[in-house]
Amino acid sequence: MLLAETDIPAHIQAAQTSFEDALTEEQLIDPRYSYRVAYIEQSVNSKGKADRVVEFIKGDSERGEKLRFFLKETERQKLKPKQVVALIKKEGFPKFSMHSHLELWKANDAKHPSKGYGTKLDDGSWYWYPSWVDFVRKHVAENAARYT
User: Fold this and answer.
1) How far is CA 138 from CA 21, 23, 61, 72, 147, in A?
2) Rounded distance between C-alpha atoms, residue 92 and residue 146, angstroms
3) What is the pLDDT of residues 1-26, one digit of tens each?
4) Are 133 and 118 in contact (CB under 8 A)?
5) How far apart are CA 98 and CA 89, in angstroms?
6) Euclidean distance between the first and the last CA atom of the chain, given in angstroms as a whole number
7) With a cut of 50, which residues of the chain have pLDDT below it?
8) Domain boundaries, the chain
């Protein structure tokens, strides 16, 4: 909707959309492509005393309904190791096992936070993001004889 309401020519809009649609999850979270901002609430007595003024408007408020867009918080999909293995097996690689998965993530240091392949939750359980599943898919496709 935002792209359609700009003065950018249609062919450039199409090229940009095509480019962004082709990006992997790993590329999207790469700080060279995008960045995240965390807002921390600090109260001041007046707008003039603040370094920056940011106003948060709820989407279902009167003012929020007049906006053309608003941000919505989303939770990234998370998969347990067993789910990753089941998915890869279902995709035609029956010899891909929990042991194969264990060896693969250890060999690639995939749990290192800088990789962005997953997260450890408060209960201590590790969950994998879809970017890891894409990595596994690529690996099994390149080593199909080993897993079929």
Assistant:
1) 19, 15, 45, 31, 12
2) 12
3) 445 556 677 777 778 778 878 888 77
4) no
5) 11
6) 44
7) 1-2
8) 3-66, 81-147
Residue positions counted in the chain: 148
- Each as own residue / partner, the long-range contacts of residues 139-148 (CB below 8 Å, 24 or more positions apart, any chain) are 139/104, 140/88, 140/91, 140/93, 140/96, 144/93, 146/95, 147/88, 147/93, 147/94, 147/95, 147/96, 147/100, 148/92, 148/93, 148/94, 148/95
CA angle 69, 72, 73 (to 5 degrees): 160
What pTM was estimated for this model as a whole? 0.53
Q: Is 74 exposed, middle or buried (0-12, 13-18, 19+ CB in 10 A)?
A: exposed
CA–CA distance, 88 with 101 (Å, rounded to integer) = 10
Residue 97 tokens read as: 């096992």
Instruction: Count other C-beta atoms under 10 Å from residue 93's C-beta.
Output: 22
User: How is residue 30 written in tokens?
Assistant: 């790469």
Output the pLDDT for position 22: 84
